[in-house]
């Protein structure tokens, strides 16, 4: 019932503080309000190390908020929900499993019979263009191919909520554009909502319906921008459009200030 | 004229030096391998020859230091006519049996407890100090106690092999379980893995390379445990062969038993390396090898 009326993700006054090894309390996220609608693609941009990733771990259920509420489909998050997918910044593929077995992992963990899991995995491998690589091990693949494996093993679980933590930041520029296009294509067929964390403003505008600018850490929402560029988009061509440049300038005037604050603090750690 | 000649000649000539060069390189590599092998053999021959000569010339006392030919005779005699305690093969089998059994038990216990300690922080916090104390003990002194507890049979040797094997395996498994990539664990939990699945399908596979490192070392420890146990008191085994040779001032016998032990240890090591290669097909080649 409530899942149709309430937004897909809602954070209300959420804060998260960590105990650092030295015993001090470090606030990563402070008083955060954020709403993500069904099927919406939201990009979160902010200065390096401001706590963007923490927001994702709160939504995924990997971490619990210190204060405030995190609601998914109107229900408070308790533990890891089954309808969430998470693509990490670093490679999180199983190095000892073949490509096919990696993509089968999710369904197998969830108790799907082997034959069916294999079929679904093959289907997604075909969609990311890795069908002929199913017997390879991750170390035999390129960075972009490993990312495709990660995408396939996330999408194979049919997530309604897709969390992505700077997924393409380790890739070279060309591969990155290619992967962004592929992500948009894959996403278009699913109806899932996406929260995409990045520090690359261009990437966020090219991909998202809504760009959320975070403040310098502890992170909270500074401003939200609607991106009215038409879909379907091609990442390489959309960034040449005049409207794109206009949006970019507008958001940068907001983001640039936070970046400057971070830089002045000397917080260059990731 | 010269133009056309070179145009037709270049592809033909261009190919030959390439294959020639790679052939020359292969030949050089082969020659070097032969050189290494033959020098290696020469070193062995030199050492054995020097030993033999020194002993025969009475520079070193042949009674105390023996000589290679005597050791060889001793080996032949044992192999063909058996030892004082029965056939040589039986002695080898006894020692191997004790070492393998002790190794197996020690490895299983070490891996299971190591992973459990690595995964369950409470267990590690409570029992950690005790494990450290036990590890600090020179465990070989337990061999006489085991002899009192379990008697002259194989059980006391198995027990000393177990205590020697357990700790290195345990610590490596523990470390392996602790150092699992946090991203990988987070990812598998998101993908839907239960705690049990994380342990069995993520932690254990990532800890295997840690565990395998300890398996190599620990088989040597298992042999030590078995031999020392036999040496202190036994009815059969290579350790007993050493101690009875020593008791009859038969230096050749002690060396001969050492030779047998070395061969056994090397064979076991070879088998383990083979298994490791099969198990770690997913691993990239060593850095430098793949380039």
How would you sum up this structure in a few lines?
The complex is a heterodimer of chains A (270) and B (291). With 270 residues, chain A is α/β, with parallel strands linked by helices. Helices cover 38% and strands 23% of the residues of chain A.
Keywords:
heterodimer; A: 270 residues; alpha/beta; Rossmann fold; 6-stranded mixed β-sheet; 4-stranded antiparallel β-sheet; 9 helices; 10 strands; 38% helix; 23% strand; B: 291 residues; mainly alpha; MetI-like fold; 2 domains; 11 helices; 83% helix; 0% strand; disordered N terminus; ABC_transporter_ATP-bind (chain A)
Summarize the structure in words.
The complex is a heterodimer of chains A (270) and B (291). With 270 residues, chain A is α/β, with parallel strands linked by helices. Chain A has a domain at 2-83 and 199-265: Rossmann fold, CATH 3.40.50. Chain A is built from nine helices and ten strands. Chain B has 291 residues and is mainly α. At the A-B interface, strand 6 and helix 3 of A face helix 8 and helix 9 of B.
User: Which percent range describes the beta-strand content of chain B?
Assistant: under 5%
Biggest β-sheet strands, sense, barrel of chain A: 6 strands, mixed
| Oligomeric state as shown | heterodimer
**Biggest interface, chains and residue tallies:** A-B, 27 and 22 residues
Kindly state the number of beta strands of chain B.
0
CATH architecture of the domain at 2-83 and 199-265 in chain A: 3-Layer(aba) Sandwich
Overall 3D form of chain B: flat
CATH homologous superfamily grouping of the domain at 2-83 and 199-265 in chain A: P-loop containing nucleotide triphosphate hydrolases
The overall average pLDDT of chain B, rounded, is: 85
Overall shape of chain A: it is globular
With strands numbered from the N-terminus, the spatial order across the biggest sheet of chain A is 6-7-8-3-9-10
Question: With helices defined by DSSP (H or I, 4 residues minimum), what is the helix count of chain A?
Answer: 9
- What percentage of residues of chain A falls in helices of 4 or more residues? 25-40%
Write down the domain tally of chain B.
2
The helix/strand order of chain B is HHHHHHHHHHH
CATH top level label of the largest domain in chain B: Mainly Alpha
Helix and strand succession of chain A? HEEEHEEEHHHEHEHEEHH
Radius of gyration computed on alpha carbons of chain A? 19 Å
- Average predicted confidence as pLDDT of chain A: 87
């Amino acid at each position: 019932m409530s899942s149709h009326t309430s937004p897909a993700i809602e954070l209300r006054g959420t804060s998260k503080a960590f105990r650092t090894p030295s015993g001090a309390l470090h606030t990563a996220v402070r008083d955060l309000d954020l709403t993500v609608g069904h099927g919406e693609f939201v990009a979160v941009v902010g200065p390096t190390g401001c706590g963007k990733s923490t927001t994702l771990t709160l939504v995924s259920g990997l971490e619990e908020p210190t204060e405030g509420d995190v609601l998914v489909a109107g229900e408070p998050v308790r533990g890891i929900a089954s309808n969430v997918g998470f693509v990490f910044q670093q490679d999180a593929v199983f190095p000892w499993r073949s490509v096919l077995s990696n993509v089968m992992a999710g369904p197998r963990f969830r108790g799907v019979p082997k034959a069916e899991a294999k079929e679904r995995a093959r289907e997604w491998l075909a969609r990311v263009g890795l069908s002929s690589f199913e017997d390879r091990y991750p170390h035999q693949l390129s960075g972009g191919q490993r990312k495709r494996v990660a995408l396939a093993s996330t999408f194979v679980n049919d997530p309604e909520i897709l969390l992505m933590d700077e997924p393409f930041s380790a890739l070279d520029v060309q591969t990155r554009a290619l992967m962004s296009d592929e992500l948009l294509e894959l996403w278009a067929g699913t109806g899932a909502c996406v929260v995409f964390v990045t520090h690359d403003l261009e990437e966020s505008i090219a991909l998202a319906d809504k760009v959320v600018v975070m403040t310098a850490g502890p992170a909270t929402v500074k401003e939200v921008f609607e991106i009215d560029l038409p879909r379907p988009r091609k990442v390489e061509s959309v960034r040449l459009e005049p409207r794109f440049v206009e949006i970019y300038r507008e958001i940068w005037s907001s983001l640039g200030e936070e970046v400057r604050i971070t830089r002045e603090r000397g917080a260059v750690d990731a | 004229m010269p133009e056309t000649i070179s145009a037709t000649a270049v592809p033909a000539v261009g190919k030959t030096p390439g294959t020639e060069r790679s052939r020359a390189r292969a030949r050089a590599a082969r020659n070097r391998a032969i050189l290494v092998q033959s020098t290696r053999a020469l070193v062995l021959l030199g050492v054995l020859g020097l030993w033999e000569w020194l002993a025969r010339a009475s520079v070193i006392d042949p009674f105390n230091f023996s000589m290679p030919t005597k050791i060889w005779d001793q080996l032949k005699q044992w192999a063909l006519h058996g030892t004082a305690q029965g056939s040589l093969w039986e002695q080898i089998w006894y020692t191997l049996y004790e070492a393998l059994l002790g190794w197996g038990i020690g490895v299983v216990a070490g891996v299971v407890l190591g992973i459990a300690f690595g995964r369950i922080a409470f267990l590690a916090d409570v029992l950690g100090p005790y494990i450290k104390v036990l590890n600090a003990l020179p465990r070989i002194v337990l061999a006489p106690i085991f002899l009192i507890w379990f008697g002259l049979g194989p059980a006391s040797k198995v027990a000393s092999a177990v205590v020697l094997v357990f700790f290195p395996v345990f610590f490596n498994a523990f470390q392996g379980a602790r150092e699992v990539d946090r991203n990988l664990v987070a990812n598998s939990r998101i993908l839907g893995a239960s705690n049990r699945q994380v342990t069995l399908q993520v932690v254990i596979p990532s800890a295997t390379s840690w565990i395998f490192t300890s398996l190599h070392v620990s088989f040597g420890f298992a042999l030590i445990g078995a031999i020392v146990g036999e040496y202190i008191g036994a009815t059969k085994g290579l350790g007993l062969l050493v101690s009875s040779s020593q008791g009859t001032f038969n230096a050749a016998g002690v060396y001969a038993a050492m030779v047998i032990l070395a061969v056994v240890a090397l064979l076991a090591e070879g088998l383990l390396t083979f298994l490791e290669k099969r198990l770690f097909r997913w691993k990239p080649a060593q850095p430098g090898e793949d380039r």
